[in-house]
Amino acid sequence: MKKYLLLLVFSLSVTFTYAQLIKNDTQGQKQSDLDWFNCSFDKDGVYGAEVNKAYDFLKNKKIKKRPIVALIGTGIDVEHEDLKKNIWVNPKEKDNGKDNDKNGLIGDINGWNFLGGKDGAVIETTMTEGDREYLRLKDKKYGDYFFDGKEYFKIINGEKTKVAAPENMDEYLYYKNFVQGESRIASAYGGLQASYLILGYANQFDRKIREHYPNQELTQKEFGICYDRNAPRDSLSEVAFMFLAMSFDIMQTKSWDFVYNSYKDGQQIKISKEEYEKKLAKLGNDNRKEIVGDNYLDINDNKYGNNVLLTADAAVGTMQAGVIAGRRDNGVGIDGIANANIMTLRVKGMEGEPYLKDIALAIRYAVDHKADIIVLPAQNTLYPEQQRKWISEALCYAENKGVLVIVPAQENSVDLEEYTFYPNRWMTGEKELTNLLVVSSSDKNGNPSMSSNYGDKEVDLYAPGIDIYTTYTGDTYQIGKGVGLAAATTAGVAALIKSYYPHLNGGQIRELLLKNVTSRADVEVEKGIRLQNGQQSQDLFLFGDLCLSGGILNAYQAVVAAGKLKN
Q1: pTM for the full predicted model
Q2: Beta-bridge mates of residue 437
Q3: In this structure, are residues 22 and 481 in contact, taking their beta carbons and an 8 Å threshold?
Q4: How high is the pLDDT of residue 9?
Q5: Could you please report the per-residue DSSP string of 25-58?
Q6: Strand (E) positions, 135-224?
Q7: What angle, 0 to 180 degrees and rounded to 10, lies between the N-to-C axes of helices 506-515 and 555-564?
């Protein structure tokens, strides 16, 4: 009932930021105040990942491998002064316009852009998965159905008309329960259909009121007669009554005639129609067919994209790369965590959500090109069944090859025990993935991000990701925040471990990171939460109830423990 009401009132969109620019004024600040993620509480008074302390422990040990970290997300500035010596180069590809390594991708020297076309054009923003699913299913008219708890109806010629139930009930329920709430276009279309429904009930209510109160000025008080607690009623009638009751406040009037006439003259329908058409025009096409030319629903259609990596969204990937592999001790910019090579696989633009096919193929590309660690885009809720299978199979492939996969928890302030986000360790339906690490962000005081998702089994650990000074496009540096930077910090520490202990696989490194955190399990902290009505609030939690490890990423403890493991 609430869903229909919300659909008519507004459309809901969920956005998040990997790395958000905060400020650029760093003059006079200590290095430990900027790339504090390298620091430790005992020495610097901040809850960093104790990277500097780890290097002190490792100073007499030899680096045995230069790990490859694949950033699956946005573009990157590969020429940044603090990064260019740590950018992955495909050893089998040359910049000669030919497919030298015979993988079907021409010029994939530093990675690949899955949102690119053969002519060098790129998709700057993508649709959300919800909008894509709405457009895929819209011809089946699932958005036209109403259900009153017993029977199905459609609006036909402006009238509520009884119809048969949808033939494919599973697909209909998927649309109603998942797609409609995730798609701004579907929400707007639901609002348009609901406006017709409400008009029908408004006509019924008007007749009822005038029968009871003939020749009388009708107000909000008289309208109350339309809701009889003892009378039989259906869910659609209740929705209509509640919305019309709200309309008095929205329209700032006590007059029933004023409210009724706004529907009777078709004004509300007109507004809803304009809103739907506006959203359809804005969100209903990212020109993938024209630019990329593939079928995003066919995993075997996999020879597409281009090698353009310096895109409008490149700041995000550049910031992540700086945390992981900014050159240490070179007197330039910041000290990244590890001596690693960064591979960039672009699947995400400035706005919208990645195509799941692109993510699945990017995972396989990274594994096939010897990546040791993969960082994915943030988790999401809507993973259509077939495409979820593509991701699951790709993650299993990475697991079998010993690759660690890190995924940021999204920033919705929700408990992941109550809401399912993907990817997760249980998504294969068969066994728990051992190589998947879900990360949320923390600040220098050891507090969790107010906005990131949480869960004592679903989130593995917290990592520095707030107010992080790092590389930015054009040989510049900025301070940013976001779960993507927490994932980058985690990837950097994982790469550090891999560089000294290359025999360890992704599952083993995950266990090392989980079991060797800076424990905060019994510390009470404040955390943002989302209430059942969608409103944001705050509550107090024990840190141990927010993640599986009960603590914050700790490079020093992890490398000490790694050194005790037998080859």
Answers
A1: 0.90
A2: 406
A3: yes
A4: 31
A5: --TT--HHHHSGGG--HHHHSS----HHHHHHHH
A6: 145-147, 152-156, 159-163
A7: 120
Which amino acid is it at 286? D
Cβ burial of 461 (10 Å; 0-12, 13-18, 19+) is buried
What would be the CATH architecture of the domain defined by 2-36+44-126+287-564?
3-Layer(aba) Sandwich (3.40)
DSSP code at position 122: B
CA nearest neighbour of 486 among 18, 154, 94, 161 = 18
User: Tokens representing 24?
Assistant: 């650029």
What is d(CA 51, CA 56) in angstroms, rounded to the nearest whole number?
9
The answer to whether 82 and 331 have CB atoms below 8 angstroms apart is no
- Residue where the block lists tokens 């800076």: 518
| Helix, strand and coil in the chain, % to nearest 5 | 40, 15, 45
- Looking at residue 429, its pLDDT comes to 87
Do the Cβ atoms of 298 and 289 come closer than 8 Å? no
Give the residue extent of every domain in the chain: 2-36+44-126+287-564, 129-283
- Flag residues of the chain having pLDDT under 50: 1-23
> What pLDDT, in 10s, does the model give residues 258-274?
999 988 888 889 999 99
The burial of 25, by beta-carbon neighbours within 10 Å (0-12 exposed, 13-18 middle, 19 or more buried), is given as exposed
Q: Confirm if 522 and 542 have CB atoms less than 8 A apart.
A: yes
